[in-house]
Specification:
Layout: E1 10-18, H1 25-34, E2 40-41, E3 54-55, H2 81-84, H3 89-104, H4 109-112, E4 117-122, H5 127-140, H6 149-153, H7 157-165, E5 172-175, H8 181-194, E6 200-207, H9 211-214, E7 248-256, H10 257-263, E8 269-278, H11 291-304, E9 313-315, H12 322-336, E10 344-346, H13 349-352, H14 359-373, E11 405-412, E12 416-424
Parallel strand pairs: 4-5, 4-6, 9-10, 9-11
Antiparallel strand pairs: 1-7, 1-8, 2-3, 6-7, 8-12, 11-12
Helix pairs in contact: 3-7, 8-14, 11-12
C-alpha cells in the first residue's frame, strides 16, 4: 500500500550497515560507486568435499568460535557479556547496525524507547548454533544445554534480542518469507506509520552468513560453483551458474513526516509505497514469466501513485541464478513496456552476493544512498549479456545520474514477491 492524501508520508532517516562491502554508509556508498565487491575464496569451503569455494563474509568480526566470549568485533562497538550470551552472529551484526542507525538518524534514548517506536526484523535465525544445541541435547542431555540457546538460535532471535536490549515498546514482530522477508518487514513497517499506528519503525534484515546458512543451498544446486571471486556472482550474464552467499545486517530507520519535522533531520529518501504478490507456481523456482513479481511491481506503482514513466532505476532481485534472472527480466519487460529501454536496471548482488532474508533491507539501504547521493550503481561482472535480458537498460558501470524514483525488487521461496517504491526526498 502507499500514502494517499491525508496519510502520513514515510521517510528513511537513518541507515546502519554491516555488510561484505562495508560496515558503514560511507564505505558502502563508495563500494557501490566503484563496483567494489566483497566476494572472496572462503576458507571454511576449502575442503575437497565442498564444491562451492566462494562467499562474501563480513569483515572485522570473528564469530566462528562456539563460545561467544571468544568472538571479536570492531573496537567502536561494546556489547556486554550478558547481551552476547543470547546473540547469534547475525543478531550481533544487527545489534551493531542498529547502534549505527540510531546514531545516523540522531535519535535520543527517548526516541528509541517509547510506545510510538517499533521494530520489524527478518532472519533465518542461527542454524549453526541450533545444530550445536540439538546435538548437545541428544549427546549430553537436555539439562546440559545453555539456557539462552533457544533465543540465540531460532528464527525470531533478531527481534527477541533487539526489542529487549534496546527497550523497544511499540510494534514488534518478525517476517519469514525467505529472500523477500526484510522487504516484507519494510512494507508492513511503512504501513504502521502511514496508518498512524507508529511514528517510527526500525526495519532489520540479518543473517549469519557462515557455513551453516550458506552451504545447504549447494544441495539445491543454487550456489555458484565458480571458484573465481571476480566472476562468481554475475547477474544477467549468460554464464552465471548460481548465487554467492553473504551475511551481515542492515537497519533502516523509518519515520513519519511529523517526526522528521519535529527533529529537524534531513531524510535519505521517502518510502512511497509497496506491493506484493505470489507466483502460486513452485516451492523453490520463480514463475517462468515472472508473473508474481510483475503483479507486485504493478501494485507497488499503483499504491505509490507513480507510473513507469517516472521510474529511473530498479534494483533487481537478480541473484545470478540461471532461472531466476530470466524470470525477473520477463517481469520487467511486462511491466515497463516501452520504458524498458530507458529505466536503468542493475543487481547489486554482483558485489555483495545474496543475503537471503537480509537482501531486501540491505538493497533498500543501497537505494536510499543512491537517491541521496545521486548515482545509479552499475551491474558488475557482465561479460556477455544473456539474450533473454536484451532490450533492458542494464548499465555495466555506475552512472553519476541522480534518480528520482527507484524500485527495489525481492523474491523468495514459494514465489513470494515484494516491490518497494522510493523517491528522492
Amino acid at each position: 500500500m502507499g500514502h494517499s492524501s491525508g496519510m502520513p508520508k514515510v521517510f528513511i532517516t537513518g541507515l546502519g550497515f554491516i555488510t561484505s562491502i562495508g560496515n558503514d554508509a560511507t564505505t558502502v556508498g563508495d563500494s557501490l560507486r566503484a563496483l567494489r565487491h566483497g566476494i572472496v575464496r572462503y576458507p571454511p569451503f576449502d575442503h575437497p568435499s565442498v564444491p562451492v569455494k566462494v562467499a562474501a563474509p563480513v569483515r572485522e568480526f570473528q564469530t566462528e568460535a562456539e563460545d561467544c566470549e571468544d568472538w571479536t568485533l570492531p573496537a567502536r562497538y561494546r556489547v556486554r557479556r550478558e547481551v552476547l550470551r543470547s546473540l547469534g552472529p547475525g543478531s550481533l551484526y544487527a545489534h551493531c547496525a542498529l547502534l549505527q542507525a540510531i546514531e545516523d538518524a540522531r535519535l535520543t534514548d527517548a526516541d528509541v524507547s517509547n510506545d510510538g517506536t517499533g521494530l520489524y526484523a527478518a532472519s533465518a535465525g542461527s542454524p549453526g548454533i541450533l545444530t550445536r544445541h540439538v546435538t548437545r541435547m541428544h549427546e549430553q542431555g537436555v539439562m546440559r544445554c545453555p539456557p539462552l540457546g533457544i533465543v540465540a538460535s531460532i528464527a525470531g532471535t533478531v527481534q527477541f534480542n533487539l526489542v529487549a536490549h534496546f527497550k523497544i515498546k511499540g510494534a514488534s514482530t518478525g517476517f519469514s518469507s525467505a529472500c523477500a522477508s526484510s522487504s516484507h518487514a519494510a512494507g508492513f513497517a511503512h504501513d504502521e506509520i502511514a496508518l498512524g499506528r507508529q511514528h517510527r519503525m526500525f526495519v532489520i534484515g540479518a543473517e549469519d552468513g557462515n557455513v551453516e546458512t550458506i552451504l545447504p543451498f549447494a544441495g539445491m544446486r543454487a550456489l555458484s560453483l565458480n571458484p573465481d571471486p571476480d566472476t562468481a556472482s554475475r547477474p544477467f550474464d549468460v554464464a552465471r551458474d548460481g548465487f554467492v552467499g553473504t551475511g551481515g545486517a542492515t537497519v533502516l530507520v523509518l519515520e513519519s513526516e511529523a517526526e522528521v519535522r519535529r527533529r529537524g533531520v534531513t531524510p535519505y529518501c521517502e518510502l512511497l509505497g509497496w506491493g506484493q504478490a505470489s507466483d502460486g507456481h513452485n516451492v523453490a523456482i520463480s514463475h517462468p514469466e515472472g508473473a508474481g513479481l510483475a503483479h507486485a511491481m504493478r501494485r507497488a506503482l499503483q499504491a505509490s501513485g507513480r507510473t513507469t514513466a517516472e521510474v529511473d532505476h530498479i534494483n533487481a532481485h537478480a541473484t545470478s541464478t540461471p532461472i531466476g534472472d530470466i524470470s525477473e527480466c520477463r517481469a520487467l519487460h511486462a511491466v515497463l513496456g516501452a520504458e524498458a529501454a530507458r529505466v536503468a536496471v542493475s543487481s547489486t548482488k554482483a558485489l555483495t552476493g545474496h543475503g537471503l532474508s537480509l537482501a531486501g533491507a540491505m538493497e533498500t539501504g543501497f537505494c536510499a544512498l543512491a537517491l541521496r547521493d545521486g548515482f545509479i550503481p552499475g551491474s558488475a561482472h557482465i561479460h556477455q549479456l544473456d539474450p533473454a535480458c536484451a532490450g533492458l537498460n542494464i548499465p555495466r558501470v555506475t552512472r553519476p545520474t541522480a534518480p528520482r524514483v527507484v524500485l527495489n525488487n525481492s523474491s523468495g521461496f514459494g514465489g513470494a514477491n515484494v516491490c518497494l517504491v522510493l523517491q528522492r526526498a
